[in-house]
Amino acid sequence: MTEHNLHGASPAALRHWHSALDGQRGMRAQLRRIDRPEDVLLSEAFAAFLARLPESWRHERHLMASALVASALAWVQHDEQTSSFAKQLKGKEERPLMSDMRFKQLLKSRTPEEFYRRLLRAIRLLKGQVNVLSLTADILQWYQEFTQGPERNPVNRLAVKWARDYYAA
Amino acid sequence: MNLIEDPWIPAIRADGRQCRIAPWQIAETDNPVVELAAPRADFQGALYQFLIGLLQTATAPEDSEQWSDLYHEPPLADKLASAFGAFAPAFELFSEVGKPAFLQDLTLQEGEAKGIAGLLIDAPGGKTVKDNLDFFIKSGQVEQLCPSCAAQALFTLQTNAPSGGVGHRVGLRGGGPLTTLLKPAGASTLWQKLWLNVLDSSNGLQSANTVLSADIFSWLAPTRVSDKTGQATFPEEVAPLQMYWGMPRRIRLEKQPGFCQCSLCGGETESSVSHFITRNYGTNYDGAWLHPLTPYRIDPKKEQLPLSLKGQKGGLNYRHWLGLVLRDDENGDQAAKVVRDFQATKSALLDAAQPLQLWCFGYDMDNMKARCWYEHTLPVMQLGASQAELVQQWAQVLVNCARESAQLLRQHIKQAWYRRPKDVGGDITFIDAAFYQATTGDFYKALAALARHSQNDTSPPQALYEGWFHTLKRALETQFDQSALNATPEAMDLKRVMAARAALFKNFHSSKQIKQIKPAKRPLKETA
Ligand SMILES: [Zn+2]
After folding, report:
1. What are the C-alpha distances in Å from B325 to residues B58, B119, B226, B358, B441?
2. Cα-Cα-Cα-Cα dihedral of B4, B5, B6, B8, to 10°?
3. CB B258 within 8 A of CB B252
4. B452 is a domain residue
5. Is B285 within the bounds of a domain?
6. How many domains are there within chain B?
7. Strand, coil or helix: A79
8. Residue B20 C-alpha to ligand 1 middle, in angstroms?
């Protein structure tokens, strides 16, 4: 089983929060209504999200990453746990579900807004069938590399991790 | 100075005291000598070979029983002194031209005069000084040597001699050969360290009948020169013992009286050597020489002469283990005579609980230049003859699979790096080095397990093979990822990298060699 780095969040808590959105249409709508991830910061839905997560997710440095996760997960219909997010983007067919070029673009987004927009496009492409934990870990890592530069050990970089899943799938 | 009678060999006694000994003192049992203490690593190896050669020449045991008795209890020091003493006339370091001087040309009157640093193998030649490539040793650093260091330098050069320009002959084992000596792994006396490498007379190396024979010590007669009118020297033409006393270079040391502080050992002496004279076309060793202390590559078709193994770029690692300790059927490498003799006869006579090592050393030569000196110790297992045969076969499978993996790794990393890998040259052997390094620990663990397995089972050790399969696979994953991705991944063609990665494991799984060790059922989870 792959270990996801969730920055201390409990996998069960995340999954539970996500599945509970089904019964809380208002919350979900709040999270989906935004254009830019930071728009979510002051919402009640986001506060409820943070309440289930470790203290560190509330720190100023982490807040944007937390917002990206909450808003992106709001678009996930069903937690499809069978394979990783990058593998899901490749799909099972010969022709990738998300094209090679789009896939590279997603990774190379220049701002969190751009990343968010492309992420939503990817989730839509998957018809909302996405691995919640894998997506969360990938968003967290993308944001970390965006703010702090890529991992020193190339093996652990998101680009490599994704390429391994996407190209080898 | 007489190298048989005078105390010139730097050594360490059991109580840790440094001293200088005459050769016979290796048999002293009161506070015995435990180790040599040469000022340079290559001299250390040379001193060992000097003493082993002396023991072989003067006091070779008749058979393995006598060998074993003497291993456990050295001869009386007086007895050894008189056995060695008979050879003293051949071991004067300095004498007038026309009279024998140790490892020096009997009649050399005139020749090229050279500074004493020229005896040292890492010393830059004229060309190197010019090219300013002498990063090894700064020229001018060594100006004068004490007689002891001069003797060590002389023996080191004659025994390892690389090619030295037109007519400056290489040593009897070729230029810069690898030497392998057996050594007890724990505490032991110098006597034991040396005696482990002495062969009994059944190996055709019985003690000299005629003490002062020019067939053994070629410097007792005019040199068999090898210029146009001269000749090569074949094993059939001289005594086998000459292998320990090969003299390819024509050299005469010049002794200078007067106070000296030695550039190498720092010792203060009443005389020194700062120059020597030399000439080319000395003894040209040709034919199928098989030096007992050196491993050789043997042509199975016997069309090529045996080729002594040399130091290699990147040094030694476990893929050389078979060729240095037993034999490697893949390339024809065969352990040195003393090592094979040990497995065949001596091993049974020793306490099996005493672990042994093989001390392997030599220069990494780049033609006339020494790139570096290196030494390694490899484990030696005490195996009976039939056990050794099994371990050899099984270990061969492990080594073959490792070689195959390293080759696949190199090939696919190139594919990951370059669009057209076939067109790219360049030295990427560092990839092999890292791969072998990463799997060394597991190899020796597996080897020890093979030895245990061979005690009560003759069928191939399937479980060990499978363990090795996983070791290799894991190492391939780590090494591939680290090397192939060691650029900025975002700037790389990750699609190509991942295709190469997938191809690596596909080829690994379908390799003929690897199939020998692959678990019968495919594991459920693939981590590719
Ligand atoms: Zn000295």
Report:
1. 27, 32, 35, 8, 17
2. 20
3. no
4. yes
5. no
6. 2
7. strand
8. 11
The answer to whether position B364 is within a domain reads no
Please give the radius of gyration of chain B, using alpha carbons only, rounded to the nearest integer: 26
Triad B179, B184, B186: Cα angle to 5°: 135
Say whether A163 and B489 touch across the interface (CB within 8 A).
yes
B506: closest chain A residue by CA: A168
Partner-chain contact A154 B490, CB within 8 Å: no
Can you tell me the distance from the alpha carbon of B402 to that of B397, in angstroms, rounded to the nearest whole number?
A: 9
List, as ranges, residues 89-118 from A with C-beta within 8 Å of B: 100, 107-108
Residues B112 and B255 in one domain: yes
Burial (Cβ within 10 Å: 0-12, 13-18, ≥19) of residue B226: buried
Å from CA of B75 to ligand 1 middle = 30
With b for 16 or more beta-carbon neighbours within 10 A and e for fewer, the A94-130 pattern comes to eebbbeeebbbebbebeebeebbbbbeebbebbeeeb
B14 lies in which domain range?
9-176+188-279
Confidence (pLDDT) at B524: 58
B372 in Cβ contact with B310 (< 8 Å): no
Its pTM stands at 0.83
Report yes or no on B299 lying in a domain: no
Tens of pLDDT, residue by residue over B309-357, are 998 777 789 999 999 999 999 999 999 999 999 988 898 888 777 789 9
Q: Which CATH superfamily is domain A11-168 in?
A: CRISPR-associated protein Cse2 (1.10.520.40)
Please write the tens of the pLDDT for every residue from B461-512: 999 999 999 999 999 999 998 888 776 655 668 888 889 999 999 999 999 9
Tens of pLDDT, residue by residue over B205-228, are 888 888 899 999 999 999 999 998
Q: What does the mean pLDDT of chain B come to? A: 90
* Tens digit of each residue's pLDDT (9 = 90 or more) over B350-393: 877 778 999 999 998 877 778 888 899 999 988 888 889 999 99
Report CA(B150)–ligand 1 centroid distance (Å).
7
Say if strands B284-285 and B232-233 run parallel, antiparallel, or are unpaired. Answer: parallel
Domain boundary among B230, B263, B279: B279
- Identify the residue whose tokens are 């040195």: B336
| φ, ψ for residue B339, nearest 5 deg | -75, -40
Of B351, B376, B350, whose CA–CA distance to B361 is shortest? B376
Higher per-residue pLDDT: A154 or B138: A154
Residues of chain B contacting A157 with CB distance shorter than 8 Å? 485, 489-490
ipTM of the shown complex: 0.72
The CATH number of whichever domain residue B465 belongs to comes to: 1.10.132
Output the pLDDT for position B132: 42
